[in-house]
Amino acid sequence: MYAIIESGGKQYRVSEGDVIRVDAMPHPVGAQIEIEKVLLLSTDTGVQVGSPLVEGARVVARVEALEKGEKLLVWKYRPKQRYRRRQGHRQVFSRLRIERIVH
Questions:
Q1: Tens digits of residue pLDDT in 11-39
Q2: Considering the entire predicted model, what is its pTM?
Q3: Is 51 within 8 Å of 57 (Cβ atoms)?
Q4: How far apart are the C-alpha atoms of 20 and 40, rounded to whole Å?
Q5: Could you give the C-alpha distances from 62 to 19, 54, 82, in angstroms and in order?
Q6: Which of 1, 2, 25, 101 lies 20 to 30 angstroms, CA to CA, from 86?
Q7: Would you give the end-to-end CA distance of the chain in angstroms?
């Protein structure tokens, strides 16, 4: 059994026990959250496709950690002006463990 959920404008295929990394959520570490944006639900009996969401389906997950991604360097450069700027950026992510899929 698996589900396709939406979080932060992105879609993820999840099963029970999976660990996914999504954009930072405002929940503390250890909090149990419910994701109700389930776009597709596949079970033993068949596949339910939402329009746009599957009614009554939700995914229960637990926030395991808040972590930062790898550093990305952003450069600004203007030729012949002696203007160069370098800036680093590290995106913050929430690591979620999928506990169960409720339908």
A1: 999 999 999 999 999 999 999 999 999 99
A2: 0.85
A3: no
A4: 17
A5: 10, 21, 50
A6: 25
A7: 11
Provide the CB-side half-sphere exposure for 16 (13 A, CA): 9
Q: In whole angstroms, what is the distance from residue 99 CA to residue 67 CA? A: 20
Specify the 3-state DSSP secondary structure of 82: coil
Q: Encoding tokens for residue 19?
A: 């660990």
User: Of 60, 57, 66, which is closest to residue 26 (Cα–Cα)?
Assistant: 66
CA 36 vs CA 30, 63, 86, 90: distances in Å: 19, 16, 40, 28
Rounded Cα distance between 47 and 61, Å, is 21
Euclidean distance between CA atoms 90 and 12, whole angstroms: 21
